[in-house]
Specification:
By secondary structure, the chain is mainly alpha-helical. It has eleven helices and no strands. The N and C termini lie far apart (about 60 Å). It is a multi-pass membrane protein.
């Protein structure tokens, strides 16, 4: 029976993910990490200082591009509450659709894209913009929102609800104080581009060999996007007309 099971074709989603039952494991792990880090922030202020994204330190502490996604404002519990709720809702949909590894890649790269967006769009250092911290999973969450929109349009599914959610959050990002709309925009653009790559490399319904060949292009294209984000960050850091910490 084991040998026969190996020859049986496993059902997959439109994007090559194995159809699994059960809970979205990666989504739950990401939420667990965010909650654990938040507890650490409440007990030790250095956690926020060491993990938040500060453009001034981007060149010599690049881990902040990603670590900031797991840090949230300790002055407002609704910050982490909203982000975790949004991550849970989008994760339940996207993780089974994309598979665990691709979903994790989407979250991570969108988080990095959010930090890059913040780096590119905050005021220059002589206006103190490079010294303002940015924290939160919002960039990654906006990437998941944008990816849901792009993938639903590709699949011919309803997109009105996600467009409304994106629109409301974009407006709130400009109206409410202390909201890093730059990170929201960066994450949304990055997530949308990644979803576009997913759509372009998805199986086309032809032969199995052709479908496998198309899927292989996703990760090289995703890595290329990360390289582009790194290049944009380096350009921004080098273009700042002020002393930098390196």
């Amino acid at each position: 029976m084991k040998e026969q099971a190996k020859t049986v074709r496993q059902p997959t989603s439109r994007f090559g993910a194995r159809t699994r039952g059960g809970r979205p494991v990666v989504t739950m792990i990401l939420i667990g990490i965010c909650v654990a880090v938040y507890i650490g922030q409440l007990t030790n202020d250095s956690v926020t200082e060491d993990l938040s994204f500060v453009p001034f330190w981007a060149a010599i502490e690049p881990w902040r591009f990603l670590s900031a996604a797991f840090v949230h404002s300790t002055g407002s519990f609704t910050h982490i509450l909203f982000n975790m709720f949004a991550l849970w809702i989008t994760g339940q949909y996207l993780e089974p659709l994309l598979g665990r590894i691709k979903f994790l890649g989407l979250f991570v790269i969108s988080a990095i894209g959010g930090s890059v967006g913040y780096l590119l769009l905050v005021p220059p250092i002589n206006e103190a913009g490079f010294l303002v911290w940015a924290v939160g999973a919002s960039g990654a969450v906006f990437g998941l929102f944008a990816a849901t929109l792009v993938l639903n349009r590709h699949l011919g599914r309803e997109t009105g609800g996600i467009i409304a959610i994106l629109g409301i959050n974009v407006v709130l990002g400009f109206m409410l104080p202390n909201i890093a709309w730059q990170a929201h925009l960066g994450g949304a653009v990055t997530g949308g581009v990644l979803a576009g790559i997913l759509a372009l490399t998805a199986p086309s319904g032809r032969t199995a060999v052709e479908n496998a060949s198309r899927r292989r292009w996703f990760w090289p294209a995703a890595i290329g996007l990360v390289v582009l984000l790194a290049a944009a960050s380096l350009w921004r850091v080098m273009s700042v007309d002020a002393p930098l910490p390196f």
